[in-house]
User: Fold these one by one.
Assistant:
Number 1:
Amino acid sequence: MAGELPITRNPVGAEKAEAIRCAVRLATAMGDSRLARMEDAAGLFALLSDPAVHAPIYTLPRPLTLGSVEDFIDTHFLEREVGIGLLFVREGEGGQILGYSDVQVWPEYGAGELGGALHPSLHGQGSGARGAAASFGWMFETLGLNLLCETAALDNVATQRLLDGLSFRRMGEVMSTRSDGTRRASLVWEMTREEWAGRHGRV
Ligand SMILES: CC(C)(COP(=O)(O)OP(=O)(O)OC[C@H]1O[C@@H](n2cnc3c(N)ncnc32)[C@H](O)[C@@H]1OP(=O)(O)O)[C@@H](O)C(=O)NCCC(=O)NCCS
């Protein structure tokens, strides 16, 4: 999670922040995705190994190896215990990992971020936009967040169109740091709970 995010920082009370941490600790599924398990490491590594999946995502481990993917899963176990992060996978028939979602939360600001990817065989058919909309709704409803903050690489047109299409507000540009210390520019978007309710229905 980049240190410059979220752009908008409205501190919430201690009680609200703790309620968000509790909701993170209790989460076991998000839509048709379930919590990642250590046994998913090989399947997740296979999904992430395709550059069409990993290249646009700055939050993935680098170098990408089976061991670093295991560490990535383990880090999310710890983040769930603390109430600040969740890793979900979407499993296809036959057990192939067809997608993953990485939820990161700033409880003190009532804010969160969703990252993730779909298997390339599913790209460009509308399931990314539908799944993201359902996941954003879940983050407001189930985690009780007030704000979502999203990023995309400057050349990641699909994610930019997805976020613009869901009426996220563009908030400028930040530098994002990958796990190996390299940096890349990211466009940033935000959406408040009220804006989401106005656009997409009650939360
Ligand atoms: C980003 C991602 C989840 C989007 O899912 P998707 O199912 O491919 O996207 P959708 O079919 O729902 O399309 C979303 C929008 O992007 C557009 N789009 C999709 N693929 C595109 C492409 N290759 N080039 C340009 N635009 C594209 C669609 O036309 C749509 O925009 P529109 O509603 O204005 O027409 C998916 O492409 C992916 O996993 N990419 C790799 C990882 C990644 O970039 N993750 C996000 C950053 S954390």
Number 2:
Amino acid sequence: MALTSGKQILEEAKKQGYAVGAYNVNNMEQIQAVVSAARATQSPVIIQTSIGALKYSDCTYLEYLIKAAIAKNQDIPIAVHLDHGNSLDFVVRAIELGFSSVMIDGSLMEDGKTASTYEYNVRITRSVVEYAHARGVSVEGEIGTIGGSEDSVGSEKISLTDPEEAKKFIDDTGVDFLAIAIGTSHGAYKFKGSINLAFDVLENIKNIIDIPIVLHGASSVPVELVSEINKHGGKMSSGATGIPTSSIQKAIKLGVSKINVDTDSRLAITATVRRILMEHPDKFDPRDYLGPARTALTNLIITKMQDFKTAGHAKDYVSKSLDDMKKLY
Ligand SMILES: [Zn+2]
């Protein structure tokens, strides 16, 4: 049984003090890279897709690609998670596609941009929790707003999570894990000035809540990938900056259990494709550049699994079925 609830994967991680990466995918090579890396490092893993990625693939194509990855990796705990769900309707759709975990981001209105009220957030999150838990599916909520923009989701401004409000939100909604805002930001262009994560806020949150904490917008934006892209005809500006691995590891020590990874994967793929097409202008078989891009992404994810200390934990526990999870709610 490889399809695993996000709740089970993250509660195990929280117990042992490591974090699990949630890797965004939108095509076959990305999915293969995620599960190859999980297999190579024996890591539990979360395969994650945005609404944009599902729509891009007409939903069904991604559904079956992910099902193939699960079928071939029955001995690794894999959660399939919807990133930034914006309505109960879309959550229902994701659960019908076989997702074992969903995020409802009620910190923003349905447009994915405008900040909502606390009451709106509780109302929509509560409705998703009721629907999902009745099917054994776990739910991630968000309180506070993460800055930046990715896949047309994101707010202009960051507003840090208030620890007391986070605690109340969990009581009011029953979410299984919670995305918080401590100064991270979506995308490759995160910060105007220097990076300043509010570790004190994280610590305060950790001290008063007891569900797993999720970090969005925490890509590293490795300089070597940005310069590889620019060396081969790309034009990413020098404003592309990320969160250093040491800060991520500090956040894990302070209680973060799920880390979303999307931008770094995009950079790894683009850097490889650009380099190969530039170095070999005669090539025109997509496998000649998508194959090496898949390898580069696999290696990037292997490093993340080691950095997040996920490696080696795939056999720590037996995955519960969603039916088992249903009974626990
Ligand atoms: Zn996010």
